Every structure is written in structure tokens, then in C-alpha cells.
């Protein structure tokens, strides 16, 4: 199950949380790939998509903060 959340944490903490979830999911896939049924594979795909979505949100936040920093430096 995906543990990381993006809300109410620093961007850096969110990224590390997502990376930890990726590591956990990768290990689960390795551990059970020989006995995986269709439902398990679907769950892995769904978990992967949730991680990609969370990473995308964090990247958007980084981009917004970077743009604000650029604007403040231009002034």
C-alpha cells in the first residue's frame, strides 16, 4: 500500500516518501512475481500510477516555487 502523501510536508520529504514507496513496491513485485495473479498485477499497476501522480504533483510544486524564486531574483 502507498504510504507517502504530498500534503502538509516539505517537497523534499514528499519526494523521499515517494522514493521509499517505489522501493517498497519494487521489492513486493520481486518477492511475488512468480506467483502473481491478474488481480495482484492490476494492484501493482494501480499503485505505480498513484506514485507517478504523486511525483507529478511534487514536480509541479517544485516548478511553481522555482518560478517564484526566478521572479524574485529578477526584481
Major beta-sheet overview:
none
Q: Tell me the strand percentage band.
A: under 5%
Q: What's the gyration radius in Å?
A: 16 Å
Tertiary shape? elongated
The overall strand count is 0
The separation of the N and C termini measures 45 Å
Tally of helical runs = 2
* Percent range of helical residues: over 70%
Total separate domains: 1
* Regions with little confidence, pLDDT below 50 for 5+ residues: none
Kindly name the structural category. mainly alpha
Mean pLDDT: 86
Sequence of secondary-structure elements: HH
Describe this structure in words.
The chain has one domain. Helix content is 79%, strand content 0%. It is built from two helices and no strands. Helix 1 packs antiparallel against helix 2.
Provide tags for this entry:
75 residues; 0% strand; 79% helix; 2 helices; mainly alpha
Quickly describe the structure.
The protein is built from 2 helices and no strands. With 75 residues, it is mainly α. α1 runs antiparallel to α2.
Describe the secondary-structure layout.
Layout: H1 11-32, H2 38-74
Helix pairs in contact: 1-2
Amino acid at each position: 500500500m502507498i504510504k507517502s502523501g504530498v500534503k502538509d510536508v516539505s517537497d523534499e520529504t514528499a519526494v523521499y516518501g515517494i522514493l521509499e514507496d517505489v522501493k517498497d513496491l519494487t521489492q513486493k513485485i520481486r518477492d511475488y512475481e512468480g506467483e502473481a495473479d491478474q488481480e495482484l498485477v492490476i494492484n501493482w499497476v494501480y499503485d505505480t500510477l498513484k506514485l507517478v501522480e504523486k511525483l507529478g504533483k511534487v514536480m509541479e510544486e517544485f516548478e511553481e516555487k522555482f518560478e517564484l524564486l526566478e521572479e524574485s531574483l529578477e526584481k
